[in-house]
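SAMPLE LOG
Freezer: B-3
Tube label: C17
Construct: single chain, 271 aa
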Amino acid sequence: MIGVEACQNRCEQLFLAGGNAAVRRAAQEGLDELGPQADLYCWLALGHAAEDDDDHDDCAEEAFQAGLALDSSHLGLLAGYAELCLRTDSFERPGRAARAVTLSQRLTELAPDSAEAQQLAAAERWARRGYWDDIRMRAAARAVAGRNTEAQARTLAQDLAHGGDASLRDADIVDRDAAVRAATLDALSGPWNAPVRLLGRHRTSAWSACFVLCFLTNTLLRQTGVVDSFSVWGWAWLLPLLLVDRRFAAVRKDAEARHIARLEAVLAERR
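STRUCTURE (predicted):
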């Protein structure tokens, strides 16, 4: 039988890898074997809350409440439940949203200088964000996604320059970066994917050339009288690159899913 600490470590590694469903499975497995445990209810709740979905939020609230019924002073449960309440729509779930104040006060009374209290304070600042903050956050998220795709493209270029690393395809690895590299090589192999590989390997140059072509095409269309202003046809050069970026994003998502599945299997074997 596994211990609570071992099960918590397993949940933590899966959570950090982004495997929310795997976290829920691991936490529920621990609860089934060990019985009610506040720490495991906390991980179960976090695994649901991370999905940011109404049905999962309901399940997360049930898990938070079950954990607090066992230990009303559990800092992780208090902070996680308060965060869930903070992001709740006060018009749809006024009762849940109102509980954020009580939970925050309880956490502040118990451990005002704890990491959980600092995390909750950051969540409260996030809940009070304005319209422009939302715009900046979305822009930052797009920038991160773009950097991830750019890094993936550079890595693909390096791997292809060395003829592809066979060990990446064959090894049963749980390293996320290696999993993304292996999945990218597999998904973009073959003659049909040659244009995707070409654009991906030269992504920065391709985007620069694309914008130049868009400008020149729009200028030509206006000068020849085909259109009176900038036309959507002038921006058609963007389509291939957008499709390539979407392909890279899909490959990365699939690689992360495979990475989590392998990690979950390795952690299960270590029990």
